[in-house]
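Structure first, sequence second, as always.
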């Protein structure tokens, strides 16, 4: 019996498999990027989405599949690891689900959303509950193609959406590892006051935005100070980043933290677990993350 299913981002099945093994979860089979397990669901940072109440349903026809889903709830999103045509036919027989890209800042949808897949033409796995409010964990935004100098702002937007909070006009932010300035651009667009720290210069258009102060120096030499938001996208070994984060948290300096935890090659799961063990922390592989996790935290 399948009791949980974990969806990895494309090319990130390996760290998810390693993490699940560390948590004592056995993966019975992979269905595309979906790890199927007969163990109860656990939190997994490397899963974009976790199906927490999956059930296997025999589906003799497209109609029986759609009826079975409709009988459980209204909103469903599909994951197709194959059988694309049959999946599309079932999807067409379901009520439409609006999953328009978000115009940031906007809250994540709150309507219950389930997920289903065809394990074979006549066997469906369907979970009325899952951890992400987005189809397959894909938090998509209407992009700004002109303003930001890098696409990194998308992961900042996604982290804010996950935290269900974002900087308010006039709030103070430190952006560590800020160049070329995607996050600083996003912070300044929200009307926050940003100190952008990087050894490299900011894009001049971002440096000139109202509320932006640039400091060209190492992020690791910045002494903790009272800020509403501590943001870091600095490239650093996780252990060094953790030591820096602890200094800021121990000083009671930030109210909120958004920070990426980057890996080179092998995933340092032990380091990720140390970040996750900080009370109030959420550590997640978001849709816009590459080989990195995002740490978000708010003072209680
Ligand atoms: C992934 S980029 C940041 C992208 C940025 N968040 C954006 O939105 O455009 C990582 C940055 O970390 C900076 N960096 C690496 N080591 C640093 C250090 N010790 N102090 C400050 N910045 C550092 C690099 O110069 C680089 O600009």
């Amino acid at each position: 019996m399948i009791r949980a299913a974990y969806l990895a981002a494309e090319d990130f099945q390996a760290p998810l498999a390693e993490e699940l093994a560390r948590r004592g979860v056995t993966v019975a089979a992979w269905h595309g990027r979906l790890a199927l397990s007969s163990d109860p669901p656990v939190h997994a940072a490397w899963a974009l989405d976790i199906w927490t109440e999956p059930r296997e349903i025999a589906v003799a026809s497209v109609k029986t599949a759609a009826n079975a889903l409709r009988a459980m709830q209204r909103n469903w999103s599909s994951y197709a690891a194959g059988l694309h045509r049959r999946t599309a036919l079932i999807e067409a027989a379901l009520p439409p689900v609006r999953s328009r890209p978000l115009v940031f800042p906007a809250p994540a949808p709150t309507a219950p959303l389930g997920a289903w897949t065809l394990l074979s033409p006549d066997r469906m796995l369907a979970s009325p509950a899952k951890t992400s409010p987005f189809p397959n964990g894909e938090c998509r935004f209407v992009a700004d193609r002109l303003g930001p100098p890098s696409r990194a702002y998308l992961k900042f937007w996604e982290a804010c959406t996950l935290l269900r909070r974002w900087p308010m006009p006039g709030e103070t932010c430190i952006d560590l590892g800020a160049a070329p300035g995607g996050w600083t651009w996003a912070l300044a667009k929200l009307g926050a006051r940003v100190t952008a720290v990087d050894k490299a210069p900011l894009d001049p258009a971002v440096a000139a935005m109202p509320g932006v102060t640039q400091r060209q120096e190492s992020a690791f030499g910045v002494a903790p100070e009272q800020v509403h938001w501590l943001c870091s996208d600095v490239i650093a070994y996780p252990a060094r980043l953790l030591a820096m984060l602890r200094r800021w948290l121990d000083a009671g300096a930030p109210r909120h933290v958004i920070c990426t935890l980057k890996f080179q090659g092998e995933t340092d799961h032990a380091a990720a677990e140390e970040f996750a063990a900080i009370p109030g922390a959420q550590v997640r592989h978001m849709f816009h993350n590459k080989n990195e996790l995002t740490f978000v935290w708010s003072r209680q």
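Margin note: Residues 53 and 175 are 39 Å apart (CA to CA).
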